[in-house]
Structures are given as structure tokens and as C-alpha cells.
Design goal:
Blueprint lengths: L2 H18 L9 E10 L7 H15 L4 E4 L14 E8 L1 H15 L20 E5 L19 E8 L4 H11 L13
Antiparallel strand pairs: 1-3, 1-5, 2-3, 4-5
Helix pairs in contact: 1-4
């Protein structure tokens, strides 16, 4: 079983129940899934970019990515409906917790000039999206094989996190290093 899954069940969930004043165990916020999305804008001109992006995302997440295609044509971007625009992976269960463990404890500390994660990237329903600028912060990616540095988005879909404060408390309990806002205690 994943280390963070055990930590959530044994330590984080009871602590959040006390902190948030919840009486039902099923009302405690939890991470339902993690969606990792990498945009590959030039993949329609060069197939090597798509192959490299998919291989890197598969190495990072431990799961084969799905190719995403454009839904409609946009002439300003020379984009036609059906062209490859990126790849995505949806992680659930033990793979999700393993990825979160590697992200929080290995990859984020390797970010250059790291000053904390912005605490304001929550949507209105409590889910959190984190932008990663370079895929090379993960040790699974071999730097010599990287064609170009690519960024990707990591979205934590949180259920029962009805408010931003509840979702932020959950991620903070997992060890998410949120940046402190000037003059306001952000978490």
C-alpha cells in the first residue's frame, strides 16, 4: 500500500475531522484523482515531439498517457480539428498516492529558486491545479534524452472539499509547501 495512503487513513483524516469540526468520516476531504496534462503544441509538425512527450509523461506517472486532440479549428494558431495538441494521464488509487509522494518529496524540492507553491490556484469547488515548468525535476526523466523542456499541469481533484480552506488544509496535511502571502496567513 502507498505510504501517503496509510498516512491519510491513520493520521491526516482524524486530524482533519478535529480541525474542521466534522462528525462523519465520509465528510472529510480526500483526493479523488490526479490529472496530469502536458501540452505538445508542435506535435502536429513533428511526430518525435509526441513520442518524446508521451514517453516522458509515462515515465513520470507510471501510466501510459492518452493523446488529446483539438476539438475545433482555430485559424490564428494554424490548428485544425483532430490535430494532436497534447497528452494526459488520470491517476487514481495507489498510483495516485505514489505520484503525489514523489511530487511532494522528490520533485518539488528540486525546483530551482523555489519559494513555495502559490496558494490561490484553487477553483471554486476545491480542486487545486499546479503548473510545473520543466519535466526534468523528476528523476525518472533522463536529462540527455529530453528534446526540449516542457511544462505540464497537475490537477488534484478533491471531493468533499466544499471550500478552498478545507482543500488547502488537506493538501497542507499531505505536505504541500504553500507560499505565505504578505500580510495574510495563506496556509
Amino acid at each position: 500500500m502507498a505510504r501517503l495512503k496509510d498516512k491519510y487513513r491513520d493520521e491526516i483524516r482524524p486530524e482533519l475531522m478535529r480541525e474542521l469540526g466534522l462528525k462523519n468520516l465520509l465528510a472529510v476531504p480526500r483526493v479523488d484523482k490526479i490529472v496530469v496534462n502536458m501540452g505538445l503544441g508542435d506535435a502536429y509538425t513533428d511526430a518525435k515531439i509526441l513520442d518524446a512527450g508521451m514517453a516522458e509523461l509515462a515515465a513520470i506517472t507510471g501510466q501510459k498517457p492518452k493523446v488529446t486532440r483539438a476539438r475545433k479549428s482555430i485559424s490564428g494558431f494554424k490548428l485544425r480539428a483532430g490535430m494532436v495538441v497534447g497528452c494526459t494521464v488520470t491517476l487514481r488509487g495507489d498510483r495516485m498516492y505514489e505520484f503525489m509522494d514523489r511530487l511532494l518529496n522528490v520533485a518539488i524540492p528540486r525546483i530551482r529558486d523555489f519559494r513555495g507553491i502559490p496558494p490561490d490556484s484553487f477553483d471554486g469547488w476545491g480542486s487545486f491545479t499546479l503548473g510545473i515548468r520543466e519535466q526534468i525535476i523528476f528523476p525518472e526523466v533522463v536529462y540527455d534524452n529530453v528534446l526540449s523542456p516542457r511544462g505540464f499541469n497537475v490537477t488534484f481533484v478533491i471531493v468533499n472539499g466544499n471550500t478552498v480552506e478545507q482543500s488547502r488544509a488537506l493538501l497542507r496535511a499531505f505536505g504541500m509547501p504553500f507560499r505565505k502571502l504578505e500580510g495574510v496567513a495563506a496556509g
